[in-house]
Amino acid sequence: MLEIKNIKENNHDILLLEGEVDASNSVELDSSIQQLSEEGATVILVDASGLEYISSAGLGVFMSYLEDFQERNVKMIIFGLKEKVHQVFVILGLDKLMNIKKSKEEALEEVK
Amino acid sequence: MKKRLRLYCNTDQLVNLRQFLDEKLRHTPLSEIDSLQVILAVEEVCANLIIHSHECNPTEFIELDVNRQNGTIIFEIKDYGQGFNILEYQEPNIDHVLKTKRKGGLGIMLVKKIMDKIEFESNGTKNTCRLFKNLESK
């Protein structure tokens, strides 16, 4: 089960993820990010504090936006990852490629 | 305790797979972090078969057996049909995944990083992939 909420907070878009991302639902994550991207979001904060699991399908979605967002100066920051989920990013070194912050405060600090 | 799971080829089944594996791993010395990674690796192989070898045809199935042997937990994944030889598959590197914006390609990388040993055999109709994880490696 994956639940995605899109919250507008001040000038930021926050994608709140709850549950598990796998090959059955990664397309939902993809369309949520795609939608924000099409709306012209320049800052996308991904609140992953409610994320219990992510498989390669979900990692692949985040990866597929990195180059585009870098070219277009869009900041996507993932924050609040539980340690067990964070470690999945670490296995492939994706924690070095993506902008990952421990807390919402740290994420907001980055986009001040 | 049930050690075998039949998984019909639909990605909606993956959640059942995780529950099954979670129960099996609960009785091992693996930490929560390691258990999750083992679940992930087994799921990656199964998802790959479901999506690519069986094109999500829900009338087809794959079978998973879990066994413990001398401090190692072994996951044996069997499917029938066009095999996927995980050992011969050349996974792309991360830079390539990034540049081509492809959403796949990371799964097999994860399996190879997480598991201690991987075997594959096929007789042309039945394919067997075995994933080994040492329980006392840490």
UniProtKB/TrEMBL annotation, chain A:
It comes from Arthrospiribacter ruber. Residues 14-111 form the STAS domain. This is Anti-sigma factor antagonist. CDD domains: STAS_anti-anti-sigma_factors. PROSITE patterns: STAS (PS50801). GO terms for molecular function: anti-sigma factor antagonist activity.
UniProtKB/TrEMBL annotation, chain B:
The keyword Nucleotide-binding applies. It comes from the Bacteria. Keywords: ATP-binding, Nucleotide-binding. It holds the Pfam family HATPase_c_2. InterPro entries: Anti-sigma-factor_SerPK (IPR050267), HATPase_dom (IPR003594). One of its GO terms (molecular function) is ATP binding. Residues 11-131 form the Histidine kinase/HSP90-like ATPase domain. CDD domains: HATPase_RsbW-like. This is ATP-binding protein.
